[in-house]
Specification:
Layout (H helix, E strand, L loop, with lengths): L1 E2 L1 E4 L17 H14 L3 E4 L1 E2 L5 E2 L2 H14 L3 E4 L9 H6 L7 E4 L4 E3 L2 E3 L3 H14 L2 E6 L2 H12 L8 E6 L9 H10 L5 E6 L4 H10 L3 E4 L6 E3 L2 E2 L3 H14 L3 E2 L2 H7 L7
Parallel strand pairs: 1-16, 2-3, 2-13, 3-6, 6-7, 7-10, 10-11, 11-12, 12-13
Antiparallel strand pairs: 4-5, 8-9, 14-15
The protein binds (5S)-5-amino-3-OXO-hexanoic acid and zinc ion.
Length: 272
């Protein structure tokens, strides 16, 4: 069975002070995405930063990043609509108007570390409906057991197309802890035909990514989820983390999906 590898280059939290290799400018992000593509990633999960490295939903920066990536490689762009905790929901939602092939949909509000991640139910429904209209494939980010039920309700209402695509997010303070038990419980509860990957934050990232791949899931790798290659050793960029995920997949006898196969597995509508 084929595994889709997503690179998450940047995220909303770390800065270059945490790891100087973190890409934050549009050019740096596009270069890291291209390197990850050549290492085997077929999806790029994108967060944007302003000149002060703060998370932003600026449409000009988003357009620039999408154009720079498209000029370098045919990877599928998945825009984060999570963006960052301090960015208003309306700005976050507007990013899908640029019609990336995919975007995240965070179904529920929650505590997120010391902050609050606001995803009000009516706004989430509106964004899901708009993504469906624009043929932007949602990746459903589930940080806790009830988030899955919220997604299934959206599906029942006709707001989400099949196949449903989930990220099981483990290790966010405010969501499920990063344990194998939690992962297995969530995988068992997914609806038949769902496509899924593990997002494991920090220390547990490697082990839970490996377990996810062994259970038949896809994998995400990159500096959004961990800045370290191993304990005490900062990664020199996203590529080594992607290479490791690709190696894990291959060691488990999983082929790594090229872009065309990822498109088919995710049931993506064809490019505009
Ligand atoms: N940062 C992860 C915990 C999003 O960007 O919308 C989840 C994530 C979601 O990547
Ligand atoms: Zn993200």
């Amino acid at each position: 069975m084929t595994a889709i590898i997503t690179v998450a280059t940047t995220g909303p939290i770390a800065t270059k002070a945490d790891n100087p290799a973190l890409p934050t400018t549009p050019e740096e992000i596009a270069a890291e995405v291209e390197a990850a593509y050549h290492a085997g990633a077929s999806v790029a999960h994108i967060h944007l930063r302003d000149e002060a490295q703060r998370p932003t939903a600026d449409l000009g920066i988003a357009r620039q990043v999408m154009d720079l990536i498209a000029a370098r490689c045919p990877i599928l762009v998945q825009m984060s609509t999570g963006v960052g905790l301090d960015v208003p929901y309306a700005e976050r939602a507007r990013l899908v108007e640029l019609q990336p092939r995919m975007a995240t949909l965070n179904p529920c509000s929650m505590s997120f570390g010391a902050g609050e991640f606001r995803n009000p139910p009516l706004e989430v429904r509106r964004l899901a409906a708009r993504m469906r209209e624009l043929s932007v494939k949602p990746e459903l980010e589930i940080y806790d057991t009830g988030h899955l039920e919220a997604c299934l309700r959206l599906h029942e209402e006709g707001l989400l197309a099949d196949p449903l695509q989930f990220s099981i997010v483990l290790g966010v303070k405010g969501g499920m802890a990063a344990t194998a038990d939690n992962l297995i419980t969530m995988v068992r509860r997914l609806p038949p035909g769902a496509v899924w990957q593990v997002i494991a934050i920090g220390r547990a990232s490697l082990e839970l990514t490996a377990i996810g791949l062994a259970l038949g899931g896809n994998a995400r790798a990159g500096m959004e989820d961990t800045l370290y290659l191993r304990k005490g050793e900062l990664t020199s960029g996203n590529r080594p983390l992607v290479e490791r995920a690709v190696q894990l997949a291959r060691d488990l006898e999983r082929n790594v999906a090229p872009v065309a196969e990822a498109e088919a597995l995710l049931g993506l509508p064809s490019a505009a």
